[in-house]
């Protein structure tokens, strides 16, 4: 651990440099020698090559955040891609840019540490940056179910607040339900399935941790494995109950139908949230051995798509990294883009946003609005030709804002060059500015809601600006 009186250079010397060097060596002095690295980025990269079990890049960086000047210097190295020994993903670098607006503690054992993943190529689950969250915090906050390390600290908080806050009571009840699910598996199938679950999680612990953009080292291995075990087993059982076509025996029926005692809709909504994710690849690995216990040839992908009602809406070859990513993939799939087209979009330089007229003015100018793809309200396809603007209907339901905000947050963190959902919402933002715009698009069956009936309510609900998050 770094002492308050030590400089980073002293610590690096103590841990990695020769013992005979003089005390008080600074970072600049250490690396001015030709034998040593010439830049901060490559120096830290070299540290990682040693693969010290107790040292990670996040730990080193956390100790460097003593002031904003040092922090800005680190970010300039990160954006050049010189900080790590392997290239960083573009999406991850974008997440670092978004995150630097948030002041985080330097202590690596405090939940919420800003950190960088040692293997950013696996990173896919992010904490929503503060500048996005503050627009509508509720859109990113689970109502009932806490999944994964980013919300792990809330479980202890639930024990203190459940008497005065219904949400924390829900959290506590779901934690008890997870334990009951795990115990029930052991009662019905014996200890072997649970042992196999735990073994798979232990083997994949590093991969799981590397899937998160935020440090998880404040959770020790034992607690981390147990947390992932309870969360993942609950998801497996819940999805088997909601998305499987299996016929259960009497004991299994009791096990899987426990899920009917909870609000399935609320659980599915919580499982869409960006911060509330487990790596999908882990869930598939856990399901494979368990599928023999429940005697099914269905894949976990089949069950997942059925649970979210996405059957037939995504091609088999499309891979997704977690449930939030699945929701984005389903929408992006409607664009029917080739891999080449997606790569072209990634490599295009950023373009300045152009101003477009709202729907009422476009209609007055002779533009004809046409609803296409009436059966697929998830479509992002918009075309304009010969004065005809064709687009799908945008449907607003109770959970629409939560879904849209989390998809947009995922794109801004992970897909900064292919922000298809953000672009679609931005387009709606231009179209809808007044009540007249809403009425026109509703008449053309291009917007629809079952929630709002009054005129002012419609505008408030449909204005895409209500969804926008700092594009």
TrEMBL record:
Superkingdom as given in the UniProt entry: Eukaryota
Q: What are the UniProt keywords, alphabetically? A: Membrane, Transmembrane
Q: Which Pfam families match?
A: DUF247
- InterPro entries listed in its UniProt record: DUF247_pln
Which protein, by its recorded name, is this? Transmembrane protein, putative (DUF247)
Organism of this sequence: Arabidopsis thaliana (Mouse-ear cress)
């Amino acid at each position: 651990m770094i002492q308050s009186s030590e400089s980073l250079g002293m610590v690096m010397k103590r841990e990695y440099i020769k013992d005979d060097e003089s005390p008080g060596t600074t970072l600049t002095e250490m690396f001015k020698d030709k034998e040593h690295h010439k830049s901060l980025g490559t120096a830290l990269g070299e540290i990682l090559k040693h693969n010290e079990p107790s040292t990670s890049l996040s730990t080193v960086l956390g100790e460097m955040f003593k002031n904003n000047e040092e922090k800005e210097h680190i970010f300039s190295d990160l954006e050049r891609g010189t900080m790590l020994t392997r290239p960083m993903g573009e999406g991850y670098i974008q997440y670092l840019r978004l995150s630097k607006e948030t002041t985080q503690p330097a202590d690596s054992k405090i939940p919420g540490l800003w950190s960088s993943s040692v293997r950013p190529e696996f990173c896919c689950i992010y904490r929503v940056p503060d500048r996005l969250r503050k627009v509508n915090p509720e859109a990113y906050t689970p109502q009932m179910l806490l999944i994964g390390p980013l919300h792990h600290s809330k479980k202890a908080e639930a024990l203190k607040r459940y008497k005065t806050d219904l949400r924390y009571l829900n959290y506590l009840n779901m934690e008890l339900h997870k334990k009951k699910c795990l115990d029930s598996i052991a009662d019905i199938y014996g200890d072997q399935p649970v042992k196999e679950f735990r073994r798979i999680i232990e083997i994949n612990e590093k991969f799981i941790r590397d899937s998160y953009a935020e440090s998880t080292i404040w959770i020790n291995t034992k607690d981390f494995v147990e947390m992932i075990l309870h969360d993942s087993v609950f998801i497996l059982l819940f999805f088997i109950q909601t998305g499987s076509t299996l016929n259960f025996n009497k004991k299994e029926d009791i096990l899987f139908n426990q899920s009917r005692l909870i609000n399935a809709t609320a659980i599915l909504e919580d499982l869409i949230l960006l911060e509330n994710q487990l790596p999908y690849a882990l869930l598939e690995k856990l399901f494979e051995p368990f599928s023999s216990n429940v005697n099914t040839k269905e894949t976990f992908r089949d069950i997942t798509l059925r649970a979210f009602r996405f059957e037939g809406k995504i091609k088999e070859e499309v891979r997704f990294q977690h449930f939030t990513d699945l929701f984005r993939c389903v929408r992006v799939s409607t664009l029917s883009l080739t891999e080449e087209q997606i790569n072209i979009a990634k490599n295009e330089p950023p373009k300045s946003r152009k101003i477009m007229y709202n729907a009422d003015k476009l209609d007055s100018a002779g533009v004809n609005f046409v609803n296409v793809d009436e059966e697929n309200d998830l479509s992002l396809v918009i075309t304009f030709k010969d004065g005809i603007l064709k687009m799908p209907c945008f449907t607003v339901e109770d959970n629409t804002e939560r879904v849209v905000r989390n998809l947009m947050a995922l794109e801004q963190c992970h897909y900064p060059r292919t922000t298809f959902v953000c672009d679609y919402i931005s387009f709606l933002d231009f179209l809808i500015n007044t009540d007249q715009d809403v009425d026109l698009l509703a008449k053309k069956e291009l917007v629809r809601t079952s929630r709002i009936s009054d005129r002012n309510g419609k505008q408030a609900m449909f204005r895409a600006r209500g969804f926008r998050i700092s594009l």
